[in-house]
Write a structure and sequence with these properties.
two-stranded antiparallel sheet; mainly alpha
Amino acid sequence: MKKSIFLYSLVLILISGAVVASNYGDDVYDSNLIAPIKKSKKDPHENYNKMMDVIMSPRCINCHPNDHVPKQADDGHPHYFGIARGENNHGFQAINCATCHQNTNNDYSGVPGAPEWSLAPAEMFWEGLSRKEIAESMMDPVRNGGRTAEETMHHLTEHELVLWAWQPGIKADGTPREIPPVPLDEYKKAVKAWIANGAVIPEN
């Protein structure tokens, strides 16, 4: 009788254990604790994704057009007044970028400004490309201005026109422009780590 009770109790314990385990799936257990220890599921492409979230924002894409026409605002509409690339990526002689865009934002007119305001060279167009295609372009010396990986890293994290994206000023109606979705310090760390780890570009 005692043996039967023991076997019955053992079966109940095994069944209970199986039910609990099924409820927690892949969680790992510490035998001294009741609660499961969650497995770490760190994204192997976290740095790449943070960097690309910034690069895909209007603050970056607007200056890398695929049709020689700079884009404006958060919706990326064509620049007003018929502005186009012109000579040396600075517009036309009569009305070039510096005619309106100074070294700092103009909060009275709503015109943004930063040092070296200009379009990216034509071969550096990003508009319409996928994240993967943009990343490949950035790391290709033929399309990135002949930069090495280290030079690309410095451009992406130190150039004043790039850093302007986090201080884009206000629009003509007084409302703030949208900033990139990743804080500046976090973005810089992500870019440096991504390049230091081999600049791996995932397929998707």
